[in-house]
Amino acid sequence: MAIRRLTTVAKENGSLELTVALSGANGAAVTPLTFLWTWTDTIGNVINSRQNVAVTGGDLGEEITIKLNGDDLPVAGVAQAVYVLSVLATYLDADGDIKNITDAVEVPVDRIIGFGV
């Protein structure tokens, strides 16, 4: 299965908030026990040290907002870069078993003339 691509396009060196809504195997919304995210280019190079970033405590919920800003959104030598947000979460199912959720989405980022390298 191909990774989905967002229709929203971020801007180079700008700000972007991505909301991740989690659902279990039955499609119902779940609150994770653990949640990690990683921000890479399409070949797996980590961008701005954003690897296995943990979301904890009160930030865990059925929806989690990931905020990207400035150096998270570089574009060099092309009109548009594409990055990948990958997530790994765990949750308790109805039987009390711990289950994994993994997913990824591509995020396009447009170059802004004057900022690119």
Strand content: over 45%
- Tally of individual domains: 1
Task: Report the count of strand segments.
Answer: 8
Mean pLDDT: 92
Radius of gyration in whole Å, from Cα? Answer: 15 Å
Largest sheet: 6 strands, mixed
**Runs with pLDDT <50, length 5+?**
none
Report the structural category. Answer: mainly beta
CATH class: Mainly Beta
Q: How many helices in DSSP terms?
A: 0
Briefly note the CATH topology name: Immunoglobulin-like
Q: Given the C-alpha coordinates, what overall shape results?
A: elongated
State the helicity in percent bands: under 10%
Strand-and-helix sequence, N→C? Answer: EEEEEEEE
Distance between the termini: 33 Å
| CATH architecture call | Sandwich
Topology record:
Elements lengths: L3 E2 L4 E2 L3 E7 L12 E8 L11 E2 L8 E7 L10 E13 L5 E13 L7
Parallel strand pairs: 1-8, 2-8
Antiparallel strand pairs: 3-6, 4-5, 4-7, 7-8
Can you walk through the features of this model?
By secondary structure, the protein is an all-beta fold. The protein has one domain (4-110): Immunoglobulin-like (Sandwich). It is 0% helix and 46% strand. It has strands spanning 4-5, 10-11, 15-21, 34-41, 53-54, 63-69, 80-92, 98-110. It is elongated and about 55 Å long. The N and C termini lie far apart (33 Å).
Write out key terms for the chains shown.
Immunoglobulin-like; 8 strands; single chain; 6-stranded mixed beta sheet; two-stranded antiparallel ribbon; mainly beta; 117 residues; 0% helix; elongated
